[in-house]
Specification:
By secondary structure, the chain is mostly beta strands. The protein has a single domain, classed as Sandwich (Jelly Rolls). Helices cover 5% and strands 43% of the residues. It is built from one helix and twelve strands, in the order ββββββββββββα. Strands 1-9-6-11-4 form a five-stranded antiparallel beta sheet, with no helix packed on it. It has a five-stranded antiparallel beta sheet with strand order 8-7-10-5-12. A hairpin with a 4-residue loop joins strand 7 and strand 8. The radius of gyration is 15 Å and the shape is globular. It binds thymidine-5'-diphosphate. Thymidine-5'-diphosphate binds next to strand 4 and strand 5.
Length: 134
């Protein structure tokens, strides 16, 4: 089972500022089939609260910061994302909660497939069951 990991993207700096390119299958380990972003997050809100059956994702704090809590059913890890040139690879079958959004935070998600509600576990017990843990 693949583990979550941080990806440091290129950071091309000149006197005008910074630019970070991200190329599918080169900078992230899958073909990007969907992009979405979360913004204008209400103070204290918790997003996500689900696992995907097959979908892989990379999450990036393109502005501001937030915490991503990952749980594979046995191990929990928390990542603070706060740099626009760092992505967090989230493998399939990993429960995630995202919270502690700073003001103005934008969470960019690069996803390996189109939106498909049947790919979600939104119930934690069902997720653990599917993992063979309960
Ligand atoms: P939801 O999964 O609750 O978002 P988050 O993971 O940030 O908590 O999605 C919110 C709504 O948006 C829900 O009705 C499904 C819809 N949605 C799409 O239509 N397309 C998408 O690509 C995503 C991620 C969500």
């Amino acid at each position: 089972m693949t583990q979550p990991y941080l990806i440091e993207f290129r950071h091309i700096l000149d006197h005008r500022g910074a630019l970070t390119p991200i190329e599918a299958e080169a900078d992230v380990p899958f073909s990007i089939r969907r992009v979405y972003f979360i913004y204008d997050v209400s103070h204290g809100a918790v997003r996500a609260g689900h696992s995907h059956k097959k979908l892989q994702q990379v999450l990036i704090a393109v502005s501001g910061s937030f915490k991503v809590h990952l749980d594979d059913g046995e191990n929990r890890q928390t990542f603070l994302l706060s740099r626009p040139n760092v992505g967090l690879y989230v493998p399939q079958m990993t429960w995630r909660d995202i919270d502690d959004f700073s003001g103005g935070a934008v969470c960019l998600s690069l996803a390996s497939d189109h939106y498909e509600e049947s790919d979600y576990y939104r119930d934690y017990e069902a997720f653990l069951n599917a993992k063979g843990i309960r």
